[in-house]
Amino acid sequence: MQTVGSYDCWDTPNVPYYEQLTAAVEAVRSRWSCRPKAAIVLGTGLGSLAEEIEVDATVRYEDVPYLPVSTAVSHKGQFVCGTLAGVPVATMQGRMHGYEGYPLWQTTLAVRVMRALGAETLILSSAVGGLNPQYANGDLMLVDDHINLMGDNPLIGVNDERLGPRFPDMCDAYDRTLARQAQEVALSEQIVLHRGVLAALRGPNLETRGEYRFLRGIGADVVGMSMPPETIVARHCGLKVMGFAVVTNVCLADRLAPVGIEDIVDTASLAEPQLRRLLTRLLADWAADSSETEQNADLASVSSTFRQPFTS
Ligand code: HPA
């Protein structure tokens, strides 16, 4: 990779980013040779959704070169690869966050790995604080859009055209067709699914009253510490994105009560069965819809996004 000035922030010493990615992909592929249709990221308190997967392989992040390990509470730190409701999936049981001290290009390496394995859709989930006064603890929200207030971006650095374009468009960051499908499933399953805007800050502290007031004022319905970096990288490499936020703490500035990580994990775990039901139904519908022709078209689109060495 070229360098700008004397420092290329996409490289760790002596190992260009693309080579890091190649090595990470090979490490997962050597343990699981299938092609996932969907990539899934399970956030705080939501990891047990992986119990639904018919597991072919689990790959711990520490066994994948260049992947940061997940240090966050309740984040197991492994890929769970297999079949969920008839759909081949690569699932991250736990993610990496900026607040753990990793640069965002590194926290999102796993998204590129799943894309290179062949995934075409990325399903994100995250625990969030609820800013919209209509939301209650345990509610689910489909992410319609995001506001990235992390003060950082995973694409900063020299752009590698093999991975995606310099200026990816974010007009439909969260796929509208997938969103409509999710809403239809929620309706038929009688699951309350709000649709709104997620603002993300870097954390790790929860926000002040003033910050919650500000975030609501600029149009956010929920606030979290993840998702935009993964969405940005996903759009950069051509993945469609669907995001689910689980409201773990209502954050109304004038009625704010202290909240701890245990409360957040507990509330997310209570809401997880709803998300599990929603996702399994959605994926079962995809499995029923997918045809041989569609699969071949998908393979072609992956090949054109990631050229060598991922096309073999
Ligand atoms: N703020 C930011 N991130 C969060 C919150 C919050 O209130 N709750 C869960 N994740």
Would you write up a description of this structure?
- This protein is an alpha/beta fold and 312 residues long.
- It has one domain: Rossmann fold (3-Layer(aba) Sandwich), CATH 3.40.50.1580.
- Helices cover 32% and strands 21% of the residues.
- The protein is built from eight helices and nine strands.
- A five-stranded mixed beta barrel has the order 5-8-7-6-9, surrounded by four helices.
- Strand 7 (193-200), helix 5 and strand 8 (222-224) form a beta-alpha-beta unit.
- It is globular, with a radius of gyration of 19 Å.
- The model is unreliable at 1-7 (pLDDT under 50).
Specify the biggest β-sheet. 5 strands, mixed, barrel
CATH homologous superfamily assignment: Nucleoside phosphorylase domain
Measured by DSSP, the beta-strand proportion falls in 15-25%
Write the CATH architecture name. 3-Layer(aba) Sandwich
**What is the terminal-to-terminal distance?**
22 Å
Overall SS class? alpha/beta
Which H/E pattern describes the elements? HEEEEHHEEHEHEHEHH
Radius of gyration: 19 Å
Unreliable stretches: 1-7
Number of strands: 9
Assembly classification = single chain
Write the layout of secondary structure elements.
Layout: H1 17-29, E1 38-42, E2 54-60, E3 78-84, E4 87-93, H2 104-107, H3 109-117, E5 121-130, E6 140-148, H4 176-188, E7 193-200, H5 209-217, E8 222-224, H6 228-236, E9 240-250, H7 261-289, H8 292-305
Parallel strand pairs: 1-4, 1-5, 5-9, 6-7, 7-8
Antiparallel strand pairs: 2-3, 3-4, 5-8, 6-9
Helix pairs in contact: 1-3, 4-7
This protein binds hypoxanthine.
